[in-house]
């Protein structure tokens, strides 16, 4: 009886040992399996990460190659350099004649000067029978003689005065105006442009000088002040 029990105990011990060995092998196998699985997974992740990097790089390359760089408009030297005194070619302006040099005067009628300009001394008036100033010149001419414009200008007034008769005033520029007095007929109107030698009308009578010989009377104003016609016109 003791022998059988001993035999049974030995068989149980042998079975237990085998089971323990089997369990150990299973444990080792499981550990090895999981270890190998982890290594494989790490390699797989690394491979995927490597692929992602390559894909990203590839995407970057594709992006860089598909987008055109903006064209830069490089200005030429002539466009980029501002013009200044050193770059602008010098153009010498043509000298222009002064108005005083360009202006030419003539006497409105051909004849002798019967009475000259005087703003300081008195002259005898046959019409009034006294001595008085004479702020103009009298040029002898027959009645109905053509009265010509003394220089280029613009007609600024046509008037009729009880002392000077029918008058035409012309602005000749340079602050010079001439009043032509004693017309019988007038050919121009206010605002007309006239040239030197144009006929303004025909001579008639100057009421305040009616007892003098037939003549045309002219008065010249420079800066609105009476001045010597012959001196200003350079006809002395």
CATH class of the largest domain: Mainly Beta
Q: Residue-averaged pLDDT, rounded? A: 78
Order of helices and strands: HHHEEEEEEEEEEEEH
**What's the CATH topology name of the largest domain?**
Glucose Permease (Domain IIA)
Query: Structural class, please?
Result: alpha+beta
The end-to-end distance, rounded to whole angstroms, is 183 Å
CATH superfamily grouping of the largest domain: Glucose Permease (Domain IIA)
- Main sheet overview: 10 strands, antiparallel
Q: Number of DSSP strands?
A: 12
Q: What is the CATH-assigned architecture of the largest domain? A: Distorted Sandwich
Keyword list:
single chain; 236 residues; alpha+beta; Glucose Permease (Domain IIA); 2 domains; ten-stranded antiparallel sheet; 4 helices; 12 strands
Task: Write a short abstract of this structure.
The chain is α+β, with helices and mostly antiparallel strands and 236 residues long.
Draw up the topology in text.
Layout: H1 2-66, H2 77-80, H3 99-102, E1 113-115, E2 118-125, E3 130-134, E4 137-140, E5 146-148, E6 153-161, E7 165-171, E8 176-186, E9 193-194, E10 199-203, E11 215-222, E12 225-227, H4 229-233
Antiparallel strand pairs: 1-4, 2-3, 4-11, 5-10, 6-7, 6-9, 7-8, 8-10, 8-11, 11-12
């Amino acid at each position: 009886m003791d022998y059988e029990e001993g035999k049974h105990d030995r068989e149980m011990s042998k079975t237990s040992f085998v089971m323990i060995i089997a369990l150990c092998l299973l444990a080792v196998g499981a550990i090895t399996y999981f270890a190998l699985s982890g290594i494989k997974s790490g390699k797989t992740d690394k491979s995927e990460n490597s692929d992602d990097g390559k894909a990203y790089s590839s995407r970057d390359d594709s992006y860089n190659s598909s987008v055109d760089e903006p064209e830069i408009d490089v200005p030429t030297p002539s466009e980029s350099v501002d013009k200044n005194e050193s770059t602008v070619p010098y153009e010498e302006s043509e000298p222009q004649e002064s108005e005083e040099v360009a202006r030419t005067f003539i006497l409105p009628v051909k004849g002798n000067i019967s009475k000259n300009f005087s703003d300081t001394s008195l002259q005898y008036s046959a019409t009034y029978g006294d001595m008085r100033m004479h702020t103009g010149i009298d040029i002898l001419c027959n009645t109905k003689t053509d009265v010509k414009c003394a220089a280029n200008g613009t007609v600024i007034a046509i008037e009729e005065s009880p002392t000077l008769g029918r008058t035409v005033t012309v602005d000749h520029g340079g602050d010079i105006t001439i009043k032509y007095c004693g017309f019988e007929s007038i050919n121009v109107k206010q605002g007309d442009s006239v040239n030197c030698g144009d006929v303004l009308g025909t001579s008639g009578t100057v009421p305040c000088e009616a007892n003098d010989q037939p003549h045309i009377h002219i008065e010249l104003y420079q800066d609105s002040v009476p001045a010597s016609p012959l001196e200003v016109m350079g006809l002395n």
